[in-house]
Amino acid sequence: MPVLHAARALVDGNTLPLDECVNLMNYVAGFDGQRAALAIVYYAADADTPEGDEALERIYTEILQRWDINGV
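Given the sequence above, the corresponding structure tokens read:
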């Protein structure tokens, strides 16, 4: 239930460390087509620098593209 941790952070108005969210996004990537779960983790991330924001966006986009290529 790793995504639940991110969802709780969002509901509570908190963020999670960027590296934790990157790990969670890679975890969610293993479950084809789970776009809502991926979005929850994405929005829970504390990407407080332009570099962090770019890295997060890149990973998010790469996962979505992989799923699109696989037809899910």
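The chain is about 70% helix and 5% strand. Try to locate this feature in the token string yourself.
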